[in-house]
Structures are given as C-alpha cells and as structure tokens.
Design goal:
This protein is an all-alpha fold and about 70 residues long. It has a domain at about 40-65. Helices cover about 20% and strands about 0% of the residues. The longest helix is centred in the C-terminal third of the chain and has 14 residues, at about 40-55. GO terms for molecular function: oxidoreductase activity. InterPro entries: TauD-like_sf (IPR042098), TauD/TfdA-like (IPR003819).
Length: about 70
C-alpha cells in the first residue's frame, strides 16, 4: 500500500482501471474536503505530450500509456 497526504494545490493522476484505492478514516474537525475528478482519453494524452515535446524541441521517446496492452 502507498499512502501519502496531499497539500493544497497538489495534483495526482492515476489510471483508475489499474488501481485499488481506498482511504483511511478522517476527522473533518470543521475543515473542508474537496475532491475533483475527470476522465481523459489516453490516446489524446499521448498525442498532446508528443506535440508539446516537438514544439519545445525535446527529443523524447513516446510514453507508454494505458494498461500496458495497447502500446
């Protein structure tokens, strides 16, 4: 198990199809808890990454994205 605490402004990205996730119990102590989720297309992510790398003049290897079975 990997456990960590996010700070204000932190971002975490993970493949929800491949992660078993949970959280420990917490006491709000009057605080506010805000989680925001979104979904992306992995092909679009890879394409945008490569396009940006080319624009910045970076020589990069295309990243492996997905569940390891598509690239």
């Amino acid at each position: 198990m990997f456990e960590f605490r996010l700070k204000t402004g932190d971002l975490i990205i993970f493949n929800n199809r491949r992660v078993a996730h949970a959280r420990s119990a917490f006491k709000s102590n009057g605080g506010v808890r805000h989680l925001q989720g979104t979904y992306i297309n992995l092909d679009d992510l890879k394409s945008n990454y490569m396009t940006l790398a080319i624009k910045l003049g970076e020589n990069v290897t295309p990243p492996k994205v997905g569940n390891g079975s598509s690239f």
